[in-house]
Amino acid sequence: MQALTITSLPSQCFLGEGPLWIAKLGCFFWVDIEKGKLHRYHLGSEQLETRYFPHRLAVVLEAENGKLILGLDRKLVRYDWETEQIEVLCGVEEHLPLNRFNDGKVDPQGRIWIGTLSTRFTEGSGALYRIGADFQPQVQLGNLTISNGMAWTADGRTFYFIDTPTKKIQEFSFDPASGAIGFRRIAVEIPEGLGFPDGMCIDREGMLWVAHYAGAGVYRWNPKTGALLDKIELPVPHVTSCCFGGDDLDLMLITSAQENLSPADIEKYPQSGDVFLVKMAVGGFESHRAGF
């Protein structure tokens, strides 16, 4: 395990998720899903700002012209941080009122990939959607329980995906032009005792950094061999997601949660719900921007 410098930012999220770095703004963003909070942290000034939405806020993504894409309950909206104007783009699963969006990412071509789950975590009730500039959600994977982490290889030809309860990272072929995916294999199987795979990102060496819920850290997996290479140990049990950022893309922002912790647990792990900034030995990539 590498020696790391870890800084905590006290945001005390109930369910911190969806970290995002926007280089143009010099800011990290993340959400607190159940509290409907959007956090923006300016790295240079260390200023933390928070906005509130009366919805479950599942994801924040970068859009064109300095705007953001937010996943509010089951709707995808465009949001202007300066004017606070919200424009609804599309929705999914109106017939499933217990469902909400979960993790989302933008592919190298600017299309949004975003999954759903049931707030009762009903097995097989979620799906993974691809949404392009026509705002017509297309189901890519069905029968999911907790649609979660996603990552693309640098060449844009391979897509990795996590359905959390399976404790597996799936590998798919990815067609850049059409966005079509085809299942290849299980790249990683998480052993017992390491928690559940949640959000993830990919580094410049093609290795996957995966936040482990109930696993107290972010684990580095080799998707070629399935081997565990490294771990960032954190003082919280429920680690939820991670992304690279900073000027050299060698800072990792990691989110965590207080969800499913008793008062005694929170007393034992008081930093639960905070986010952590880690200086990394190997850097990653900028997140892609939605093409609309």
UniProtKB/TrEMBL annotation:
Mention any Pfam family matching this sequence.
Answer: SGL
GO molecular function per UniProt: calcium ion binding; gluconolactonase activity
Alphabetized, the UniProt keywords read: Metal-binding, Zinc
Task: Tell me which residues bind a divalent metal cation.
Answer: 17, 148, 198
Q: What cofactor does this protein call for?
A: Zn(2+)
Q: Where is the SMP-30/Gluconolactonase/LRE-like region domain?
A: 15-258
- Which residues are noted in the entry as substrate-binding? 100, 102
Where do the catalytic residues lie? Answer: 198 (proton donor/acceptor)
Q: Name one GO biological process term.
A: L-ascorbic acid biosynthetic process
Q: How is the cofactor bound?
A: Binds 1 divalent metal cation per subunit.
Q: Which domain of life is it from?
A: Bacteria
Family, similarity comment: Belongs to the SMP-30/CGR1 family.
How is this protein named in the record?
Gluconolactonase
* Source organism of the structure: Mariniradius saccharolyticus AK6
Organism lineage: Bacteria, Pseudomonadati, Bacteroidota, Cytophagia, Cytophagales
